[in-house]
Amino acid sequence: MKILTCPINGPLPLQEFHYGGEVRVMPDPHTVSDSEWADYLFHRNGEPGIKREWWHHIASGTWFIAERNNVTDEILRTYLYDGTTAS
Amino acid sequence: MTRLQPHEHQWIDRSRPIEFRFEGQSYQGFAGDVVTSALWAGGVRMVGRSFKYHRPRGTYSLAGDDVNAMFEDGERTNLRGNTLQLSAGLDLRSVNTVGGLKRDLLRFTQLASSMMPVGFYYKAFHTPRSLFPFYEGQMRKVAGLGRINPNQMAQATPKDYAFHDLLVVGAGPSGLSAALAAADEGVGVVLVEQHPHLGGSLAWQRRNDPEAVASLNTLVKSVTAHANIEVRCATQVAGCYADHWYALVDEHRLTKLRTKSLIVATGCYEQPAVFQNNDLPGVMLASAAQRLSHLYAVQPFKKCVVLAGNRDAYRAALDLQQVGVEIAAIVDLRVDGETTALGAQAENAGMEIYRNHAVYEAIAGSGNTTVQGVKICPLGDHGQLDPHSAKRLDCDGVAVSVGWMPVAGPLYQAGGRFTYADHVHQLVPTELPPTLFAAGRVQGVFHLSDRFADGRRAGLTAAVELGCSDQVVRKPIVHAGASPSHPYPIFAHKKKKNFVEFDEDLHLIDFANAHQEGYDNVELLKRYTTVGMGPSQGKLANMNAVRILARLNGKSINETGTTTSRPFHHPVPLAHLAGRRFHPTRHTPMHSWHVKAGAKLVYAGPWLRPEYYPISGKTREELILEEAQHVRDCVGLIDLGTLGKIEISGPDSTAFIDRIYTDQFASQKAGTIRYALACDETGTIIDDGIVARLDENRFYVTATTGGAAAFFRELQRWALIWQMKVELVNLTGQFTAMNITGTKTHEVLTSLTDIDLSNEAFGFGNVREGLIAGVPAKLIRVGFVGELGYEIHLPAAYGLSLWTKLLEVGKLTGIRPFGIEAQRLLRLEKGHLIVSIDTDALTNPFEANLKWVVKSKKEFFVGQRSLAILRQKQLTRKLIGFELPSEYNGPLPEECHLIVEKGEIVGRVTSVAHRSTVGKTIGLAFVRLDMTDPGTSLTIRVDQGKLVPAIVTALPFYDPGNQRQK
Fold first, then answer.
1. Are B288 and B63 in contact (CB under 8 A)?
2. Which of B590, B749, B916, B928 is the most exposed, having the fewest neighbouring CB atoms within 10 Å of its CB?
3. Distance between alpha carbon B160 and the CA centroid of its chain, in Å?
4. Beta strand pairing status for B236-241 and B426-431?
5. Higher per-residue pLDDT: B383 or B217
6. Are B869 and A3 inside 8 Å of each other by CB?
7. How sure is the predictor about A87, in pLDDT bands with cuts at 50, 70 and 90?
């Protein structure tokens, strides 16, 4: 089982975490076109490479971001939403 | 039963004889025997039959790498005889026979083998289609191995956890050296060996070499005494998983091991040669013959031919001669034979050596159960045989030692990659990720001194990488001298019983045929021929299969490619894998009362909730209706402890709530509540509840029982993304809730609280905080079931006492608890939908009649942009109420039954109540947009295709003016 490092709680087994999908920035809903909005909602980039992913440490309620190489399944780093790590 | 002379390193304990039964006969062996060794000692040559042709099969690897010996004992099935330790009372049968091993009625299958070419199953059994059920029935009888006992009680086996710095797999010379080198540097090592004793190949391969025996003894002594090494024998590393997580399997348990580093010193599987009748009982790997004699003191044959492709064959021949086996000849595939001292030693011992010769065929005794001799032929320039110059040699056994294949599974699974190296004619690891190391024969290092050194190198390297040592690390050792493996020990024969794959009965010609049919890629070939897909997972077949394919393609082995090796390494009993059925259940504080009251409990997500409260002599349906009717006529109490309860506070809390829910909350007055609907970004309904505004910046919101955890998680994420100053507290467990409702609610509640319950002071849609029966609580006046009623939210610790107090005080009034079925009925009568029952993963608020709660003009809310698009589009369906005609008297619709029109599906029932307090069968359904007007006739297709008439009815079914709740 993989180990994921929560920026607050340290390295823990994957079963303590909930996956929250790829980090995607919401386009401005007031200016974006319908098709661009649909693209944001429904299209996911399956391209191999380094992904930024949302992860949630269930027990402590910590949301953070992991950079993961989805070819090697290697987690390169994890950090809080503001880019910092608490530990 | 005859055994060889006792010897200090044998694995059997002659002081402990053990009786066991096999195929109805009694046999005797010793503690320390495996079943196959005891059977061979008892003169049994046929230990099983092959999967497809039911050919007699004998001992082949004696290491658990073949599956000739697969047994069942009535409780367990597919026990591997090569590794199953003898124990008293064992009563075994072979798995793959009809009518016993000797008489197996399916043994005649092999006569039809010419009609079963490769791909036979794929070609034969799909036409005509109408016959497939018949084919399937017949196939099921012969497919698979072993029988399971359906009456077997479920067995829970223990699960264990272990943590070490370093795992060393394999306790041969390199594994022992590696473990010791790392442990000496302070690394915490676990050394795992699949056999019951340490030593690896040294335990049986060098028994007549005093120097090797002495080295092994020293190593074993140091390792077992070392404080930093934990030794686990008779344990397989069944699988290697991410981040150094390993599944260790022994007879009793699964151990989940976590380490920081891995050294694989698993050694090699000895590989078969392919010649006619190479599967007869009596043909075995030379290593198996050495295991039999050295470990179990069993003489493998009387007189044997040794088929040689390397130096190890000569060592085996000398070993066998030493235990009294007459060596009929060494048949050496190599032009020059063995040029080292071992070759001379064999010659000096009087062995006849045929260089540049091959065994062309093993000659079968009656019933194909024994070997009577072999035919050998000289080899031509290109390794081809000339059968005309064949010579016959009499013998009762053939020991095959032509090459080795690395036990690569753990390396593959841990992320290693292999390439074929011509200097050893085997696959060797080339790319190993950091913290993964290989040592010894698995990486092509064969000389004994090299293996000790290579193990030390790997152990030290691991210690350095773990930060436990700063010693200088040497480079891996490269094998020098003749190759330990022959590049192509595979020989054609005009008849086809030269097996490449023993599990699946694949002959050499099958590969040529598959190749001719276009399966020229290793992965395609594997799936078409099924090579490597049997229970032994190609341990003895994959390498030869790749050699054959490479030759057929005219390419190198590296160009041809190899298949990978996935868990499990050896078969693992399902009991070891089965979980402990650990389903955490949540109880509300009132749970003990429900249990005492005899409530029928059901799961709602993880929660247990009363479905209804049984009374003897009354049916479930009667009671549900009665409980509901009691709420309408008098007063009822229901446990709502399972509701999601969330407190939202802070300076940005109003803005935050406005962004989460579709309605507008900025104008909400303190002390009031509002219905709240939440959508996701696509505009799909995900949750609903109420928002109670306690004061300017403090809100108390509820979420659905099933959706609360996920909804709270999303709240946390949005708060983070929007960087808002809000504090979110999930009070679901800390608080509990109940609802008291019905016309006579005030008769019960008034005396228990100082809160003014009058309509003027505390109207519908308000929330008050105060004491109820002395307990601090929030009182929320909600519609809920369409009667006068209050949700009471309070700290969980007080839940039970308030519940019992309300029932006690309300006794005279006639208060009665009701369950979730009555609640569903009452809410359905009011036309309320239940998120995730009446809505699905695509339902938007417009089609669920919730447009009134969507405030499009707000600055922003989650789902707003999508709803703006959806609003422009024509709806495709709408949620409506329906009822059955009062005179209808037939089968009743259920949830998910379809609404049909002229054979087309036009809708779906989402909720239904067969009996209701409004005296009809009523329900909710999604229907096509042109069918939503009240009075429209619908047709519901129920079970068995019966059609039921229904009429669209305006919602709600009960009290349309909402007078009763006000």
1. yes
2. B928
3. 17
4. unpaired
5. B217
6. no
7. low
Q: Are B653 and B729 contacting, i.e. CB atoms less than 8 angstroms apart?
A: no
- Cα separation of B62 and B47, whole Å? 12
B920 alpha-carbon distance from chain centroid: 48
CB within 8 Å: A3 and B243: yes
Return the percentage of chain B with pLDDT > 90, whole number.
85
> Cβ contacts (< 8 Å) between A32 and chain B: which residues?
865
Look-up of token digits 């190479």? B278
* pLDDT over 90 at B413, yes or no: yes
Q: Provide the H-helix boundaries in chain A.
A: 34-42
Contact B692, B793 (CB under 8 A): no
Give the percent of chain B with pLDDT over 70: 100
Q: What is the DSSP letter of A6?
A: E
Query: Which uninterrupted H or E stretch holds B949?
Result: strand B947-953
CA distances from B958 to A44, B774, B827, B926, B954 (A): 46, 36, 10, 20, 10
Residue that the structure tokens 């009555």 belong to: B822
Report the gap between the CA of A2 and the closest CA in chain B (Å).
5
* Residue B386: per-residue pLDDT: 83
Question: What's the pLDDT score for residue B584?
Answer: 87
pLDDT tens digits, one per residue of B680-705:
999 999 999 999 999 999 999 999 98
Residue B286: pLDDT over 80? yes
Q: Which residues are CB-contacts of B872 (< 8 A; sequence separation ≥ 6)?
A: none
What ipTM was predicted for this assembly? 0.97
Coil, strand or helix: which one is B158? Answer: coil
* DSSP-based three-state secondary structure for B200: coil
In B599-707, where does DSSP find H-type helix?
620-633, 653-660
Q: What is the C-alpha R_g of chain A?
A: 15
Q: Is B869 on the interface with A (CB under 8 A)?
A: yes
- Mean pLDDT, chain B, as a whole number? 94
Q: How far apart are CA B534 and CA B778, in angstroms?
A: 65
pLDDT at B156: 83
DSSP state of B958: S
Judge: A29–B717 Cβ closer than 8 Å, yes or no.
Answer: no
What pLDDT, on a 0 to 100 scale, did the predictor assign at position B143?
A: 72
User: Is A86 a residue whose pLDDT tops 70?
Assistant: no
* Greatest alpha-carbon span in chain B: 117
pLDDT at B184: 98
Q: Which of A32, A42, A63 minimises the CB distance to B717?
A: A63
B542-580: pLDDT as tens digits: 999 999 999 999 999 999 988 888 899 888 988 898 887
Question: Which residues in chain A are contacts of B241 at CB distance < 8 A?
Answer: 1
The residues that bridge with B263 in the sheet, in sequence order, are: B168, B437
Number of residues assigned to chain B: 966
Q: How confident is the model at residue B104 (pLDDT cuts 50, 70, 90)?
A: confident
- The answer on pLDDT for B1 being more than 60 is no
Q: What is the mean pLDDT of chain A?
A: 93
- State whether residue B823 sits within 8 Å of chain A by CB: no
Query: Which of B713, B720, B864 is opposite residue A81, by nearest beta carbon?
Result: B720
Strands B600-604 and B607-612: antiparallel
Question: Taking CB atoms and an 8 Å cutoff, what residues of chain B touch A25?
Answer: none
A18·B242 Cβ contact <8 A? no
How many C-beta atoms lie closer than 10 Å to residue B720's C-beta?
16
Inter-chain touch A1–B242, beta carbons under 8 Å: yes
CB of B442 within 8 A of CB of B407?
Answer: yes
Q: Which residues have a Cβ under 8 Å from the Cβ of A68 and sit 6 or more positions away?
A: A50, A51, A53, A74, A75, A76
In this complex, do A1 and B241 lie within 8 Å of one another by their Cβ atoms? yes
**What span, in angstroms and rounded, lies between the C-alpha atoms of B516 and B551?**
13
Return the sign of the alpha-carbon dihedral for residues B543, B545, B548, B549. negative
Contact A2 B865 (CB under 8 A): no
